[in-house]
Amino acid sequence: MTARPHLRAALAVLALAALAGCVTPVRKDLGKFVAAQPRSILVLPVVNNSVDLTAADYFLSTVPVPLAERGYYVFPVNLVKRLLEDDGLADASLVHGAPVDRLGNLFGADAILYITIQKWDAQWVLVSTQVTVEFEYVLRDVKTGTVIWEDKERMQYTSDSGGGGLLGAIVSAAITKAAPNYLPLAQRANQQALAYPGPGFPAGPYHPEHKRDSLPGAP
């Protein structure tokens, strides 16, 4: 029996995750991050440079959980979006261009996370569909406006025939292109971005490993 398209997509993402797990992450200098000691993070509405109008809201929903699991207080993203709209900042690009101290004072946040979607698309390649997501993350300290962490992540999977031969490949690719499942890739991108040690955040104040990760030269 041929596997369902969404199951095949999920398996492809898991395979991608396993492959990514085999790569040794490149350590970043997190001195500014540790010095800033952020406890709370304000996640701004996402700037969407892709052609999918729904991408920003879908992706935004994947961000708070991994941040909270790293030990930080994360302001509720839907409430943040509504309050910003009430303050005259309805467009994500306007929000990203607003003064850091204004945004920080509005919510009482220690740090602000800016995210830009560069890719969120599905492309037909021969008899398969290639689904790609690409994001840029920037974290700024509210007190100084300084960038204390940044990262870029790109995730991709390609649909296959699932054992159905050429016809199965064509059908699978058509279904994937019609209803691509971006969320597993988006979730994996967030997990990779926050992986520590490597590109990601040291454990926050609400995580049991906070003291260890906050020490200079921590692994």
Beta-strand segment tally: 6
Query: Which range best describes the helical content: under 10%, 10-25%, 25-40%, 40-55%, 55-70% or over 70%?
Result: 40-55%
Q: Kindly identify the CATH topology.
A: Rossmann fold
Distance between the termini: 47 Å
Beta-strand residue percentage: 15-25%
Rg, nearest Å: 19 Å
CATH A-level architecture: 3-Layer(aba) Sandwich
Overall mean pLDDT stands at 82
Tally the structural domains: 1
Uncertain runs: 13-23, 163-179
CATH class: Alpha Beta
Largest sheet: 6 strands, mixed
Shape, per Cα inertia axes: globular
Supply the number of helical segments: 10
CATH superfamily: ABC-type transport auxiliary lipoprotein component
N-to-C series of helices and strands: HHEEHHEHHHEEEHHH
> What oligomeric assembly is this protein in?
single chain
What structural class do you assign from the helix and strand content? alpha/beta
What's the gist of this structure?
With 219 residues, the chain is α/β, with parallel strands linked by helices. It is built from ten helices and six strands.
